Amino acid sequence: xxxxxxxxxxxxxxxxxxxxxxxxxxxxxxxxxxxxxxxxxxxxxxxxxxxxxxxxxxxxxxxxxxxxxxxxxxxxxxxxxxxxxxxxxxxxxxxxxxxxxxxxxxxxxxxxxxxxxxxxxxxxxxxxxxxxxxxxxxxxxxxxxxxxxxxxxxxxxxxxxxxxxxxxxxxxxxxxxxxxxxxxxxxxxxxxxxxxxxxxxxxxxx
Length: 206
Hints:
Blueprint: H1 6-9, H2 19-31, E1 37-41, H3 49-66, E2 69-73, H4 77-83, E3 86-91, E4 94-100, H5 101-106, H6 111-118, E5 168-171, E6 174-176, H7 187-203
Parallel strand pairs: 1-2
Antiparallel strand pairs: 3-4, 4-6, 5-6
Helix pairs in contact: 2-3, 6-7
């Protein structure tokens, strides 16, 4: 994993390594048994952008060399764009949108995904404040009935707080848990959702 002087440093303690080096050690430990799947939970958190890029490139190289599939768990949409082929967006511990990396940025369908894309800062924009997702996440031990995102969703309908939505097909290899894509939504609501999706995709730079 490209730690300089690895043979001399193999007996060093964690506090003698930088954050990036500790991440490399963890990756080496995870790959030591030659797994077919590597689960990487926030592998770039608390690292500066330069070290983040190095860790991402290292994981790509190891994926090619070992033929290992990687499940990346992250809140960083930049890392998602760099590393992933397929994406599962989760809210309150549940998958709400599943698709390819291209479609999640070009044709996002779930209101929560739109909120995530709108909240990402852009270098070419001057804003005093970012656009937040209003409200607070629910308690995972006391989830509301229906869709967990409904209390924060500007498109919520009566059905949303009554029953958890199923997966609706919204495109090739693309599903979303949202009643906006069911016969419960009016044409006006569907058009508003389409406009919101286009606005979110424009925020992603696609």
